[in-house]
Amino acid sequence: MSHADTENPRQNVTFDSATESGHAHGYLRVPESGSGPGVIVIQEWWGLTDHVVAIVDRFAAEGFVALAPDLYGGRTTHDSAEAQELLVSLPVDRAARDLAGAVTYLLDRPEVTSATVGAVGFCMGGAFVLRLAAQQGDRIGAAVPWYGLPGTDTDYSGVRAAVLGHYGEQDESVPLADVRATAERIREQAGVDVTLHEYPAPHAFYNDERPNYRRESAELAWERTTTFLRERLAPAARA
User: Fold this and answer.
1) Which of 29, 155, 213, 235 is most buried per CB count within 10 Å?
2) What CATH code is carried by the domain that includes residue 61?
3) What pLDDT does residue 9 have?
4) What is the pLDDT of residue 2?
């Protein structure tokens, strides 16, 4: 069953969003060093779960300032049918505005050392990563979708980020033929580098709370992701 906590430990920051409420919430972690490149982490269709919090914490341990916007307003679930309902009821435009607000929030934080931010998303979040990169242009320096794709009508001409994708060869919900076709569209429309990695794994192979978790593939993809982000997120010029 889903729930919305009145005092949600997964919501430790509030930032401006161009929505009716005027704000959105999220979970932020700063590395022990006190600063680092900025990374947006976009949730799966389960919501901002403990698993997503753990991903943010892991990025912070790797030296990144990481923020996961809460696109469901505190609601989470472990039930697939309810997750589908939450996804269908999520206004895409509102989510896009919340994500844009998250980008601005990170870039404005003094702890963030990069001139752009990275965007990393899983499943539903992987689709939002590519949309966000298209909408935010040169504010996104690296885009990393994990086993997620937006609709075939998506316009990628605004993408300025290099793209690194992680997809499973056994993924029945995201066919590799569609993944490869999307990669080619991004290259044609945006002229950016797109690198795809395919793994002997099913959908959601990084989520260690689910039966599809595949440790070897997950760890290899994680290593590739952090290396890519460090290479692509250049330090900002400070006055």
Assistant:
1) 29
2) 3.40.50.1820
3) 64
4) 34
